[in-house]
Amino acid sequence: MQSRRLFITALAASFLSAPVLAQELSGTLKKIKDSNTIALGHRESSIPFSYYDDKQQVIGYAQELMLKVVDAVKADLKLPNLQIKLTPVTSQNRIPLVQNGSVDIECGSTTNNSERQKQVAFSNTFFVIGTRLLVRKDSGIKDFPNLAGKNVVTTAGTTSERLIRKLNEDKKLGMNIISAKDHGESFLTLETGRASAFMMDDALLAGEMAKAKKPADWVVLGAPQSREAYGCMLRRDDPAFKKLVDAALAKAMTSGEAEKLYKKWFMSPIPPKGLNLMFPMSEDVAALFKNPNDKAFE
Amino acid sequence: MGYHWNWGVFLARVPSGETSYLGWMLSGLETTLALSLSASIIALVMGSVMGVLRTVPNRWLSGIAALYVEVFRNIPLLVQLFIWYFVLPELLPSGIGNAYKQMHPLLQQFAAAMVCLGLFTGARVCEQVRSGINSLPRGQKYAGLALGFTLPQTYRYVLLPMAFRIIVPPLTSEFLNIFKNSAVASTIGLLELAAQGRQLVDYTAQPYESFIAVTLTFMLLNAVIMGLMHRLEAKTRVPGYIGGGT
């Protein structure tokens, strides 16, 4: 009797302690180790976060941070020759591609929110944006209430799209909302006079403004309708990989490396045309760099 | 692969609260139907006129029709749509162009997509009408003329009633194509069925439910059209001709 109880206790103890002792890799890290390849997801035209330069190389603020994560993975798994597989993603396919394993991590301009958290996990936030308006300087538009009865363009599939629709419905502004397929097309709609204003994440608006024929004709304005946290997407329920990614991003932010990257991508001329976004760091981003976290705003 | 299925998503309210996601899908279906049917009418009219012109003896008229076919059949549909929507208003005199661009965006998108799909499919219908006419024995045309009919009368009373009955089966597939091709209108922001499906993905992060629903709706739609066209085919079949009984 006595020995049997002892045996059960020992068995239970061995089950409980086994994972800790063995340090077995699981999930994404095991997949990376087994294949000696990490699959990165990137965007094609999210300036300056993740986009192609004129040599079709993926560059950008989020891309550089993602490569820091890759370095951390290399060091952790002791895989100096880790192969990188780059996969371009769109706002429509990015979630399925992460879920089905085509992409292990996606850093671009993806907002961390509660609906998406049901499908994927998010790393530490690496940028915070506000949703505002891009208008022609002489348009007379000063803020959102001025948009009543006007045509307003936004990019399909973004948080701005739902915010502007809700605003239109709640305040009965009678706006005509145009949903363009990507940021470039939204800006084309604005520039050709089809719409009076373009609502989007302020950092992306700065990027589009820099591409305009005459950047000086345009201005970003309006009270931010929301703040959003950009994070890297990972598969859910993979705490080991998330911990590694979070630690790598937190290190970049607290060590001052992220600030250097910020200056490089938001305050200096960037490829392909050598444009300067002149987008000073917001209080939200400064606070984030001091205290990295993975909290969503909504 | 860890997907979180939720078929109840269609009954959830949309963020602005005025309808459910199912309501969005139904309004998308409405737009798809309106767009495809109006484009079909343009295609049928353009295709018939141009198809007749391709077979007339006048070289100028048949040349114009041939040019129409070559232009609209050889440029990818997506490119044509962008030309109609983005490029054409800039080429028009600025007064007209600006007036068009100040219209309600939905009307602009619908008009551009309707004209684009109609003319694109019209070029294909044109070739079918031509081959329908050419498939008739030459003697029919001469018989009509010999009876004292003018050339237009020969077309109206002898050739076209036969030709249209012969080309019902290929017209069916053009009709089906127009419904499927109407999904390109989502690229200029028209909220038809495919665009609503994509929007549902953006709002709810439930891609599989949405794409499955869109796929099944298109299949159902096309099954209904095929059924209707089969009945039309059976009614109009010419005994003794291709696909016809004896």
Describe the structure.
The complex is a heterodimer of chains A (298) and B (246). With 298 residues, chain A is an alpha/beta fold. Chain A has eleven helices and 14 strands. Chain A has two domains: 26-129 and 228-290, 3-Layer(aba) Sandwich (D-Maltodextrin-Binding Protein, domain 2); 131-226, D-Maltodextrin-Binding Protein, domain 2 (3-Layer(aba) Sandwich), CATH 3.40.190. Chain A has helices spanning 2-22, 27-35, 61-77, 94-99, 114-117, 159-171, 183-191, 202-211, 239-254, 257-266, 283-290, and strands at 37-42, 45-46, 50-52, 58-59, 83-88, 105-106, 121-136, 151-155, 176-180, 197-201, 218-221, 227-234, 269-270, 275-276. In chain A, the strands form four sheets. In chain A, strands 7, 8, 9, 10, 11 and 12 form a six-stranded mixed β-sheet that branches. A three-stranded parallel β-sheet of chain A has the order 5-1-6. Chain A has a three-stranded antiparallel β-sheet with strand order 2-3-4. The longest helix of chain A is centred in the first third of the chain and has 21 residues, at 2-22. The N and C termini of chain A lie far apart (57 Å). The longest helix of chain B is centred in the first third of the chain and has 35 residues, at 21-55. The mean pLDDT of chain B is 91. The interface between A and B is large, with 37 and 34 residues.
